[in-house]
Amino acid sequence: MPVTVIIGSQWGDEGKGKVVDLLSPSVDVVARYQGGANAGHTICWEDKTFVLHLVPSGIFHDGVTCVIGNGVVIDPVALMEEIDTIKSLGFGVDGRLLISHNAHLIMPYHKRVEAAIEEARDAGAIGTTGRGIGPAYVDKFARTGIRVVDLLDRDVLRKKLARSLEEKNALLRKVYGAETLDVDAIIEEYVEFDKRIDPFVTDTTAFLHNALAEGKTVLAEGAQGSLLDVDFGTYPFVTSSHPSAGGACTGLGIPPTSVNRVIAIVKAYSTRVGNGPFPTELDNEAGEKLRAVGHEFGATTGRPRRCGWLDIVALRYTSSINGFTELAVTKLDVLTGLEELAICTSYRVDGKVSERFPSDAQTLQTVEPIYEYLPGWTEDITGARSLSDLPGNARKYLERIEELMGVPVRLVSTGPKRSQTITVAGSAA
Ligand code: IMP
User: How many angstroms separate the alpha carbon of residue 1 from the centre of ligand 1?
Assistant: First the structure.
């Protein structure tokens, strides 16, 4: 049976958690395929709000099996805290949470090295989340990383760790003048972690293949956004993994032919956290209003997010990379009360109008957005349950997005709660 991939179509924080949570009752498996505890997927139910960093957003639905795939980098401390909180909320994880034996581990030196590098970059800093993500993926690709499976054999773990730490300690001490770390203390901590995660660890790729062969439905949950993809994002101001649809195949071990639906989560405006080019950024009152009304502060770091208008040039670009089959437009309610809304439809680059998303961050930094303007609405839309409940101008805004993207809008979110959602005919939600 086919796989649905959920993609952040912008720079992350589009509301993927809410959409995955909404779709979960209609699937058997939800699988995270990349990133780590840099993600913050927010889910609200009744009067509770919970932010998931590593555990897939299907965990609050008893019949759903949640997979942390081989493409994810796991921070043991964050994972344990998250599992404890999920349990304390009354949800079971035993037999429902599966962790890939091939997933790489975030080690204490990854965070320390990242902090030192970011500090040394000074004004050129990427503005990372500080969760050790970049250095962990560096080790993965340098083939010096430590994987979940390495925890099984204490001698192998010690050998790998000693080799890695020798290099990391030299880097920390000699290049950055930072404090070094001790092998024994790390071994002790990770052996404790091993005891706790052992029941969850398995060959998740084989599990997914069996599930698909049995006709089960799988939702692949992306973290971050396509514009933060290490290959297709605004490099070097990106994360170190592949949030784009291709990442679902490599991060879970599923064939591309198993994917038949790619849902783009599109925030009704744009936000970005951290540094890097952002053509439609609003450095004014409207931007501040979006930040305040949309609670645009990082779910992981609490940092204020940069806010701006919707950027169709960027969205068409991510659509071309991911093959979006439908759009889920989130946070439409945040636009209520704005007299006029702007949608960026092209850029002016070196005096010429272009609809192409430049492939280098330097050019993107210099583009001038060209906008078309639509009238806003003042009516409260947080209670709307169908498109016909929306004011005409809100419907026109959605129709224009659909038209410009050439992809249908199948879901509209008008507030953080599960009930504050409009599903449009043709949607499986
Ligand atoms: P890293 O993923 O911590 O290495 O950070 C690299 C860039 O990606 C920084 O600009 C972060 O702010 C951004 N980033 C990482 N994770 C997220 C996320 O979940 N939402 C939004 N931005 C993110």
Answer: 32
